[in-house]
Automatic annotation (TrEMBL):
Gene3D superfamilies: Rieske [2Fe-2S] iron-sulphur domain. InterPro entries: Rieske_2Fe-2S (IPR017941), Rieske_2Fe-2S_sf (IPR036922). The keyword Glycoprotein does not apply. GO terms for molecular function: 2 iron, 2 sulfur cluster binding; metal ion binding. It comes from Didymodactylos carnosus. Pfam families: Rieske (PF00355). This is Rieske domain-containing protein. Residues 83-175 form the Rieske domain. It comes from the Eukaryota. Signal peptide: none annotated. Keywords: 2Fe-2S, Iron, Iron-sulfur, Metal-binding.
Length: 175
């Protein structure tokens, strides 16, 4: 809510340190987190420890907290909405979209040669439905920003897993 990661002693623990919530800037925040955690472990005063403290109170932003939680709830509506297309044949070459197939949603991409890549549209991190980003040709999760390339491979976390699962399917072009 305050756009800062949680770096330091895990609330409620005596010797577990965390570095999380980097929101896509992991290289920078992990470096700062390593410095903060190292200093906390060795009893060295660190000027950033209070700013990034996982126990910090964020009561200054209650409206931001409510807005963030409302955004997450709205993102889950994607489970019940229709897909962008109803038939793979509607998908142009070099484009992607989300397609409903019965009770499931698939992330679908048609390569320039006509090969169709189809996989689960459910983000492995917190189970949000990804959305196609035509500018980047990626599938992006609206919940916490995980991004996947057009072939379902993870390119940005927080997830560490690809979209491919039991629904993965590659359909060669019709000759």
């Amino acid at each position: 809510m305050d756009c800062l990661p949680f770096l330091g002693l895990n609330p409620g623990d005596k010797n577990i340190y965390i570095i999380t919530g980097d929101s896509g800037t992991g290289m920078t925040n992990q470096t700062i987190g390593a410095l903060v955690c190292r200093d906390l472990i060795y009893g060295i005063d660190n000027p950033w420890k209070d700013i990034y403290d996982p126990s910090r109170q964020m009561v200054k932003a209650p409206l931001e907290f409510l807005r963030h939680n409302a955004e997450i709830q709205v993102a889950f509506k994607d489970y019940v909405t229709a897909g962008e297309i109803s038939d793979i044949e509607e998908l142009a070459r070099g484009e992607g979209c989300i397609m409903r197939s019965g009770m499931t949603k698939h992330a679908v991409y048609r390569d320039n040669d006509g090969t169709v890549y189809k996989f689960s549209a459910i983000c492995p991190h917190l189970k949000g439905i990804v959305r196609y980003n035509p500018l980047e040709k990626t599938f992006d999760c609206p919940l916490h920003g995980s991004r996947f390339d057009r072939y379902g491979k993870c390119i940005n976390g927080p997830t560490k897993h690809h979209l491919t699962d039991s629904h993965c399917e590659v359909i060669p072009p019709v000759k």
